[in-house]
Design a protein that fits this description.
This protein is of the alpha/beta class. It has 16 helices and 13 strands. The strands form 2 sheets. Strands 3-4-5-6-2-1-7 form a 7-stranded mixed β-sheet. It is flat and about 80 Å long.
């Protein structure tokens, strides 16, 4: 619901989910357990004719039909299994639906889906079940994003973050801030139009409420960088002089021979990447060409790509050969790096580990690599105990809302006509509406739901 107007989410008029004005009028069907071979699969029917269609493909259909009570029987497709009917208002999509459990062969799922389509259903578009849940007010847009992130989660950290989003944690923060802003906007408009009846605006109370709204937004914004790192992973650029053991370190940490390793300096000519999970996070390790001046045009291109990788990384591992010691070349190579950088003393199996802040490792034995990974996660995540929930779509909207709040506060605090603050407060509420989806255009919905898989 729109915290400002109480309106239901806007139904888009031109995106592919509304072609032929079909979303809520049609009954749709799709497997919700993926399209791969499995022991069990669940096929969902959703829409006004879902119970009717299910009763024609399953026997014995329960009479009377009891929502949320499973019944065992046979399908006209030849398989046996269970049906579980849900009533409108108490289903995932918010409309009548049936979940049909069958054996998970591709043939069984296909035959059952085709049988339903033969009786009037159509295949669901990617994300259409969640889209219907959104249109029917079961979830807001942030929770829909949480559903997608839950399905896509690869690590425990991503799953925890997705679950918080899906359970409405961000929406609750937005609703809390919106209630405060809406109260001030109502007071401003009343004092503007009906001051003789309501009296003058209580600016101190209005400023107190807007300050509280600012605190809510500030709390929601904290950990935004960490939220991105949980969702997208931490990019670690591995750089240093040739033959420092960068590729060997990548292979040891990744547990695979991802990069070519030879004694010949300049072997690595291009970036080589490997994904590693550590502490519930994904680390994208990027091995780069050794930093040095060279007349070889191919190696020179690799060096330029190394510098680009370093510039775009979240964390840099600057690797040097401890058996050769820290050199003036190392000093000159590390000086321009303006990203968070961990100096990694490699080859401690050949020489004594240095004292000081450097991270001592052996790419041969693996000694010290876990401590290096721990330090990398700690450096990237900082002191945030819990990463935030904002994604790339939310961040500019929260920033715009925060700026509009500042302008409203300045207007009220400096004694300007208080009706000018109403414009800024309405801008805040529009930003909130775009976050939750109560104000949503077709392009936004089309872009978001097109990232969903079939069956969600």
């Amino acid at each position: 619901m729109d915290p400002g107007t109480g309106a239901r989410p806007t139904r888009c008029g031109r995106c592919r989910y509304d072609q032929r004005v079909r979303p809520l009028a049609d009954t749709v069907v799709a497997p919700i357990t993926g399209l791969n071979r499995a022991a069990v699969a669940v096929v969902r029917l959703s829409g006004p004719d879902s119970w009717k269609i299910a009763s024609q493909v399953f026997s014995p259909w329960p009479d009377p039909t009891v929502p949320r009570m499973a019944t065992y029987g046979r399908f006209t497709s030849g398989d046996d299994g269970f049906v579980l009917p849900f009533q409108a208002g108490a289903s995932y999509t918010g409309e009548d639906s049936v979940e049909m459990s069958v054996h998970g062969s591709l043939a069984s799922v296909r035959r059952l889906s085709e049988a339903c389509c033969g009786l009037g259903a159509r295949p669901a578009d990617p994300g259409e079940f969640t889209y219907r849940a959104f249109l029917n007010g079961r979830i807001d847009l942030t929770q829909a994003e949480g559903v997608r992130d839950t399905v896509d989660a690869l690590t425990e950290g991503q799953l925890r973050q997705a679950n918080r989003l899906r359970e409405g944690a961000l929406r609750q923060s937005v609703d809390e801030a919106a209630a405060l802003v809406l109260a001030v906007l109502a007071a401003v408009e009343a004092a503007t139009d009906f001051e003789e009846e309501t009296g003058p605006l209580d600016r101190d109370l209005a400023l107190e409420r807007l300050g509280s709204a600012q605190n809510v937004l500030a709390a929601a914004s904290r950990g935004a960088v960490q939220s991105r790192l949980v969702r997208e992973g931490i990019t670690v650029a591995i750089t240093g002089l040739p033959n420092a053991g960068k590729s060997s370190l990548l292979n040891k940490v990744a547990g695979t021979d991802r990069a070519i390793v030879t004694p010949v300096p300049g072997t690595t000519r291009d970036t080589v990447e490997a994904l590693v999970e550590h502490s519930g996070l994904v680390l994208n390790l990027v091995d780069t060409a050794g930093l040095r001046d060279t007349d070889d045009p191919v190696e020179a291109l690799g060096v330029r790509r190394s510098l680009d990788a370093v510039a775009s990384a979240d964390i840099v591992w600057y690797v040097y050969d401890v058996s050769a010691g820290w050199s003036q070349e190392d000093e000159e190579a590390v000086a321009p790096i303006d990203r968070p950088c961990l100096r990694v003393a490699n080859k401690t199996d050949l020489a004594e580990a240095p004292t000081g802040p450097d991270w001592a490792v052996s790419a041969t034995t693996g000694q010290g690599t876990q401590r290096l990974l721990d330090a990398t996660v700690e450096q990237a995540m900082g002191e945030e105990s819990e990463p935030g929930l904002l994604n790339k779509r939310h961040v500019p909207l929260v920033e715009a809302a925060s700026q509009a709040l500042v302008e409203a506060v300045v207007t009220l605090r400096t004694g300007r006509p208080h009706d000018l603050a109403a414009v800024h407060l309405q801008s805040v509420l529009r930003c909130f509406g775009e976050i939750t989806g109560s104000v949503a255009d077709d392009s936004l919905l089309d872009k978001l739901f097109s990232t969903f898989c079939i069956g969600k």
